[in-house]
Design brief:
With about 290 residues, the protein is of the alpha/beta class. Helices cover about 30% and strands about 10% of the residues. Strands 1, 4, 5, 6, 7 and 10 form a six-stranded parallel sheet that branches. Strands 2-3 form a two-stranded parallel sheet. A two-stranded parallel sheet has the order 8-9. Helix 4 links the parallel strand 5 and strand 6. The N and C termini lie far apart (about 45 Å).
Length: about 290
């Protein structure tokens, strides 16, 4: 079935058959870039018409369009986390903002990707290979929303988006035994690599929950970075990256305030070059 979409004219009825051809919008007049500004990572979830939203994980396509436009007017470009960290490692990240979409909702393909491409942006989408084509039944209050299937994930990758892991089944990694932890982390990476034909570098901790044990498991599995939400101060580095939640209530002034404050309250760590791979000495959470 095609994804839920507010942009069927741009995508057609089966959007993953080819990358969307969306004409870029004319660049707005850029505002002066604030001296000393630093990059940060925004955290989105579902992009669809705003309605019942008990967990505050929805932003409407119109609101996302406004927010991406605001970034452009500030002379910023949204990119996936892998691209952001590579640029940060060589000091070239000042004009970049990391864009992430958790849970891999099907509306990412129908609603988010066309807007991202129209604004000249890319993003990282954290998906659940153990729930392909399923629903978000980890949210007891609902509402139920469909998740990306294998074809839509491959289509998003072909459209220039970074595909990364959110674990197999959206499980709190701080509360599972060793065998389950390994499956959620390592098996999800293997499945996504096979599905996309691309090496998977990124991981996102479900619920933003991370401890040293989970961070070490992610590092050992071969990932090069991992995103949390607001990790404990005892954890830092590229395996506990902080992010800032962005939602429907982030209208112009709120979004602008968050973009100014995020580098202060959710600063990104220095990034070694090259980015760390697996190994006992690489990317220790400390």
């Amino acid at each position: 079935m095609p994804p839920d979409t507010d942009t069927t004219a741009a995508l057609g009825t089966t959007p993953w058959r080819a990358a969307p051809r969306v004409a870029p919008r004319p660049a707005p007049r850029a505002l002066p870039r604030r001296a000393g500004a630093r990059s940060w990572i925004a955290m989105y979830h579902s992009v669809t018409a705003h309605g019942d939203d008990p967990y505050q994980v929805t932003v409407s396509p119109g609101r996302l369009d406004e927010q991406l436009g605001r970034l452009r007017r500030r002379g910023l470009r949204g990119v996936g986390v892998g691209e952001l960290l590579a640029a940060r490692a060589v000091g070239a990240d000042r004009a970049l903002v990391g864009l992430t979409f958790d849970d891999g909702y099907r509306d990412f393909a129908g609603n988010a990707v066309p807007l991202l491409r129209a604004h000249g942006c890319t993003a990282t989408v954290f998906v659940l290979p153990g729930r392909l084509g399923g629903e978000n039944d980890w949210d007891p209050l609902g509402p139920r929303r469909p998740l990306l299937d294998a074809a839509a994930i491959r289509w998003a990758a072909d459209a220039g988006m970074e595909i990364a892991s959110h674990g197999l089944t959206h499980t709190d990694l701080t509360r599972v035994d060793g065998a389950r932890l390994t499956a959620e982390v390592a098996e999800s990476r293997a499945r996504l690599t096979e599905l996309t034909g691309r090496t998977v570098h990124g991981f996102c901790y479900p619920y933003g929950a991370v401890d040293r044990r989970a961070a070490d498991a992610v590092r050992r599995a071969g990932y090069r970075y991992a995103c949390a939400t607001a990790p404990d101060r005892m954890l830092s580095g590229v395996f506990a990256l902080p992010r800032v939640h962005i939602g429907q209530d982030d209208t112009d002034w709120r979004f602008t305030a968050k973009s100014f404050l995020a580098p202060l309250y959710r600063p990104l760590p220095p990034v070694p070059f090259p980015l760390p791979g697996p190994g006992p000495e690489a990317g220790e959470a400390s």
